[in-house]
Design a protein that fits this description.
about 90 residues; alpha/beta; three-stranded parallel sheet; globular
Length: about 90
């Protein structure tokens, strides 16, 4: 869930984070913004944030971009999407 993801990010440095848009508690957009904020407060480089969702509309992609996501994937992702994702880290 969103709260657990944020707790992990507060205590562990990650190169990348894969977030689902639909999570219990805080959604992926909220968590993405919070990760960027936490990284800035800690003076650390933020992890690359990749969002995945079954929502495929332009509004959803724009919300992810505005939240600070580095990439947006629709479910189900193609296996090559993950190879491309890892090459960005």
């Amino acid at each position: 869930n969103g709260a657990e993801a944020l707790e992990m990010v507060e205590h562990t440095a990650f190169d990348g984070v894969l977030l689902d848009v639909n999570m219990a508690g805080k959604d992926g957009y909220e968590v993405c913004r919070a990760i960027k904020r936490i990284s800035a407060l800690q003076g650390m480089k933020p992890p690359k944030i990749f969002m995945i969702t079954s929502r495929t509309g332009l509004v959803d992609k724009m919300r992810a971009t505005l939240a600070g996501a580095d990439a947006f994937f629709s479910k189900p992702p193609h296996p090559s999407d993950f190879g491309n994702l890892l090459s960005r880290l």
